[in-house]
Amino acid sequence: MEHQEVTLAVSKHEGAGNDFLIMIDLEDRVQLTSDEVRGLANRRSGIGADGVITILGPRDGGDLTMVLKNQDGSDAEISGNGIRCMAHEAVRAGLVAGGTFSIQTAAGLKRVHCEESEESSVFASVEMGELQIDDIDSVTRQVRVDIGNPHLVVVVDDLEAVDVAHEGRRLQKVREGGINVEWIQVLSRERLALAVFERGVGPTQACGSGTCAAAGAARALGLSGDSVAVANPGGILHVDLSGNEATLSGTVSVVADLFVPLRRDL
């Protein structure tokens, strides 16, 4: 079989330690396969990332379009940190002017805000949309939340006692197709601590949509108010709830700009 070697221009970004490889492909010519995504995201044989994002041109009313793949090559609907990182790269690359603009995702149209800056780290926010509380079990302190992707939030007294990898794999079975799992410890009505097992990835340093789900679940259980700071393992993210609408904000940083050789079958 014949092969062709192409070179991809990618950037690596992170938000609270949740890291993504981002490729600009406005006309959708590259179309990475699941195997290629897994290879790029592999932390030993590839560059390493929690997910891979392709920036496409405008679609369905968005200024830009996000295609998001999990570390295992599967499709993902939305990532709060991923879309904030994408917003940063879009502004850096001059695809949009700094400020507020819209990104079309598999979970619908999202408004993001990211200022133009020559700094490697910037503040970025995203209006994640409506939090849907699907089920509340006040006895086990478990809440199912949907924010464009599915979450199970579990309230615990001691976050450090949770075996995230083991329990995360076990709890995948509660929903066909898997589920993102967050464990939260309430530090005060304004502060939560969180650990996360992301569907298609595993334990990660942070999860933006999971942070929003955690804030919504804590408020639904009467444990917090409308505005909370959530300490993820990789850093602090902020959630503001207005009714059932969630806005996620925090710092995002560019880690590196890279040229990556990719061998493809013809």
Automatic annotation (TrEMBL):
Signal peptide: none
Alphabetical UniProt keywords: Isomerase
Gene Ontology MF terms in the entry: diaminopimelate epimerase activity
Pfam family name, one: DAP_epimerase
Keyword Isomerase belongs to the record: yes
Record GO cellular component, one term: cytosol
InterPro entries to which the protein is assigned, alphabetical: DAP_epimerase_DapF
Biological processes per GO annotation: lysine biosynthetic process via diaminopimelate
NCBIfam families hit by this protein: DapF
Family note: Belongs to the diaminopimelate epimerase family.
Protein name: Unannotated protein
Naturally occurring in which organism (per UniProt): freshwater metagenome
